[in-house]
Design goal:
Elements (H helix, E strand, L loop, with lengths): L3 H4 L4 E2 L36 E2 L6 E5 L5 H10 L3 E9 L7 E9 L2 E9 L5 E3 L8 H12 L2 E3 L42 E2 L3 E6 L11 E7 L2 E8 L7 H5 L7 H5 L7 H16 L5 H29 L3 H22 L8 E2 L2 E2 L5 H27 L1 H7 L7 H6 L4 H5 L7 H4 L5 H4 L11 H24 L18 E7 L4 E9 L3 E8 L2 H11 L8 H8 L3 H5 L1
Parallel strand pairs: 3-6, 7-8
Antiparallel strand pairs: 1-9, 2-3, 4-5, 5-6, 10-11, 11-12, 13-14, 15-16, 16-17
């Protein structure tokens, strides 16, 4: 009987030439590069920068396709992160197509647009520079037909059976009412072969009512050698739907990209429109948005801490945290009219005020919830069985987290100290200050620790904002958005940074909206986190990230 160490020499990835970016076979740790130059400023790229008006620092530049890799390599060396990559159809404007990138620099975000030809639009792929771009590049092809040259991974990503190859639903000529017979859906998963290797297919349909996703495990015994994900079963055509809406109508849709992050998406969308039209939301509205965003963060951390307890057979923790989450959701309904805070953030402000007596009740209820969470934290910290399952399980080292641009609280648990509320403190964060929670071990225990710290900090922030709500109105009319307007919304949601890029057309219409979820960055890291762990630990590792299917699949 050979040991696992001996067997490892016989395992083989059969399709490594067809993959890139998010594959373990590429040895991503080996391509982590450190720069000796330090952080790069936008002006160091020698581009013709145009400011993008709005609450967050942003600039736009046109980059020629032949210059794209130079810009990305320079940005990567200077520690700039890739936040999003998407495409657009510019034929209605008399051009061809365009590739767009959002790159985060210390001085703000760069929206880089790369003009592409109308016939056979293509650009040099950048997944070797930014591995998290792999799936975004594949999605851009499925939706628009713009092609990343020299990419070793050309498998479809968004397209399942809903439309055939050669049909691109985000092109302007595509009729959203089109229907096609089911197409062939043979997806070429990467095979791992060798003595004792087995596959376990899980999903896309799961027990309960969770959203669909397929997970293909390659294992020896219970040890996970490889995990490959297949997502996009939740693709809803949201980006296409935006094109038929006015900017004001789009606000409701933006808040429904990912239901557990409705405040973050609605705020990012409103921020983009307000920048385009020059609308300045009232200071009271901004404080109320801050309260709503942190209430969303508290609710999600409460629920997930309960689920994490349940995954290590600590049912007591599950029931107690979900009792607290239910109490919070009922408080949301009482004070704001909706358990999950939908349709409260609107372009120009917010839809509902918080009266003095209501603010006092909010402060008191959060004080009580915080005291109970503190008691539960001590139980989690001192429970030997739970800690045995948490510590060193599902680990992402800081080097890999940096290379793959791991986002949000999961990134902060792996030493990636980025939080938009701290890095670019727009109102209301600049008035009260946000303490960033972080860890360096990158395992389940670290992610649990960061969640607890963020939960306590969010309670403090809500209490501080509610105690000193500035006077004034809560909403102003949204100024008209001119044709050719460009705006960026960038908000630190509970899962990570949510970006919404908006371009307007004539006659008060939308040309293009791209909402981006941090799950795009984090799903590939889940594949890495499970390696070497046992299959029964997958639910625990998965829940410690709790990534969005819906937001990732738009």
């Amino acid at each position: 009987m050979r040991s696992c160490r001996q067997l490892r020499k016989t395992w083989r990835f059969d399709n490594t030439k067809s993959i890139t970016g998010d594959s373990d076979a590429l040895g991503l740790v080996d391509i982590v590069r450190k720069s000796e130059r330090g952080p790069l400023d936008l002006k160091d790229l020698a581009l013709d920068l145009k400011p993008v008006a709005g609450a967050m620092p942003a600039s736009h530049a046109v980059v020629r396709a032949e210059e794209l890799r130079r810009v990305c390599e320079r940005a990567r060396e200077g520690y700039a992160r890739l936040v999003a990559l998407w495409g657009s159809d510019e034929t209605a404007r008399g051009a061809g197509f365009a590739l767009h990138l959002a790159l985060a620099f210390p001085s703000g975000i760069l929206w880089a647009s790369v003009p592409l030809a109308r016939e056979h639009p293509r650009y040099p792929g950048i997944a070797d520079i930014y591995p998290c771009a792999n799936r975004m590049q594949r999605a851009a092809y499925d939706l628009l037909g713009i092609h990343a040259q020299d990419s070793p991974d050309r498998r479809k990503w968004v397209r399942h059976r809903a439309w055939p190859g050669g049909v691109f639903p985000l092109r302007k000529e595509f009729d959203i009412a089109s229907r096609f017979p089911p197409a062939d859906d043979q997806y070429p998963f990467v095979k791992v072969s060798g003595e004792g290797v087995h596959e376990i297919p899980v999903g896309p349909v799961h027990a309960g009512i969770i959203e669909p996703g397929h997970f293909r495990f390659s294992i020896v015994g219970e040890k996970i050698l490889r995990l490959e994900e297949r997502l996009c079963y939740k693709h809803k055509g949201i980006e296409k739907r935006f094109e038929a809406l006015t900017p004001e109508q789009g606000a409701r849709l933006a808040g429904r990209v990912s239901g557990d992050s409705t405040v973050a998406y609605a705020w990012a969308y409103a921020m983009a429109l307000e920048g385009i039209g020059g609308t300045e939301p009232p200071v009271r509205a901004l404080a109320l948005r801050g309260i709503l965003l942190e209430m969303e963060r508290i609710a999600n951390h409460l629920g997930d801490l309960g689920y994490i307890g349940n995954d290590v057979a600590l049912a007591f923790g599950f029931f107690q945290f979900w009792r607290l989450k239910e109490a919070l959701l009922r408080l949301n309904s009482e004070l704001f009219g909706h358990r999950y805070l939908m349709d409260l953030v609107t372009p120009g402000g917010v839809a509902r005020d918080l009266q003095r007596r209501q603010a006092e009740r909010l402060i008191a209820r959060l004080e009580a919830i915080g005291a109970e969470v503190a008691a539960l934290k001590s139980i989690y910290d001192e429970h030997a069985g739970a800690q045995d399952r948490f510590i060193m399980t599902g680990q992402i080292a800081p080097e890999l987290a940096e290379k793959m641009d791991l986002a949000g609280f999961a990134g902060r648990a792996s030493g990636i100290r980025h939080d938009l509320r701290v890095d670019y403190p727009a109102a209301p964060w600049q008035q009260i200050g946000v303490q960033m929670a972080s860890h360096t071990r990158g395992d389940v225990a670290a992610r649990v620790s960061v969640r607890f710290d963020e939960l306590f900090e969010s309670i403090r922030l809500v209490q501080a904002l509610a105690a000193q709500l500035p006077p004034g109105e809560i909403r102003v009319p949204l100024a008209a958005c001119p044709a050719g307007g460009r705006g960026v919304g960038w908000v630190e949601g509970w899962r990570g940074e949510v970006l919404v890029a908006v371009e307007t057309a004539g006659e008060n219409r939308i040309h293009r909206v791209h909402p981006h979820d941090p799950s795009w960055q984090n799903w590939p890291l889940l594949e890495r986190a499970v390696l070497g762990n046992i299959v029964p630990d997958f639910p625990l590792i998965n829940k410690s990230f709790n990534l969005s299917y819906s937001g990732q699949d738009l």
